[in-house]
Design brief:
It is built from eleven helices and 15 strands. By secondary structure, the chain is an alpha+beta fold. The protein has one domain: Nucleoside Triphosphate Pyrophosphohydrolase.
Amino acid sequence: MASSPASARTSPRTGLAVGHGPVRRAERALVPRLFELPEDQYVAARSWWVHGERRPRAARRASSVAVVRDGLNGVETLLRYRPGPTPLGSVAFPGGSLDAADEDDCRWFGPAPAQWSRVLGVDDHRLARRHLAGAIRELYEETGILLAGPDAHAVVTNPGGGEWMQARVALDRQELSLPDLVNRRGFGLRTDLLRAVGRWHSPYFSHRRFDTQYFAVAVPHGQDTSLMEGKGLWSAWMPARWVVAGRDSTVLGDAIGQEETVGRMLGRLTVPAVELLLERMAEAGSTVEFLMDLTIRGGVPEFTPELHGSPEGGAASEASEAPGNEADGGGFSLSVDLPGGRWARA
């Protein structure tokens, strides 16, 4: 049956920092917080609750990248709308499933894959390579931002349109791999520009599950964003403070203007990982401050939201900073244990 958050748990904070020695931290109490259940997950949640817990479906590996810049109203981030159900949320950061070719050899700038594997909490350095390359590939396909360059101090200029658009389309169709693209042009992947943020597993009851590594990056100098030709319905730079301030209204969903978004609040459109990272952006005074606060010394935190409540109601009213979801979600919500630090301050 659905699980309830404990009043407090503790989590050991140990790991190996990239470029540093072993790091050992004092344990922090885990603080449970409730979030709205996105509408596209309600049927799966109800089935899980009614029929009892079963073996969760296998999760596909994925990467997602929050890209940020400084704006007149604080830190801005690029959000996009994804039609249909998705483990990353209908309103989310660029991202998607990993490809097998993401681990192919290419020039590499930044921490070695073996070092990244310790930060990301995965045992296989080849899988770490796939997560980093997958993050860079998805970011490029969806936004035109390419974290690659001829050396460890430069990035390619204006790689989003013109002849580059053909490469983005070929990547999306899996007619070209990211390693092939950078190898042909004599570039290497600038993995040093990425900041690892956290590892999120889709809830166990979900019909489609991702094991997602979240990253963050600032827009490189000389690059801009654009939607891929023939794909994407909505994408925009949004001040994080504006999005967070309007979370209890339908202002973002109405601005997107799609049938699945109009009249819906933020919690119905996205997942806890996106909401929490938006909060961190809103708190930061600048892009530099935001990214420095995400610097990892040890492994990234790992989360699996749990189903909380019942379809008869009652759970949603307990949610912290999340409005009730009685209209369509019954009494279900998602419970996440937060350790403080990068994702939430205890």
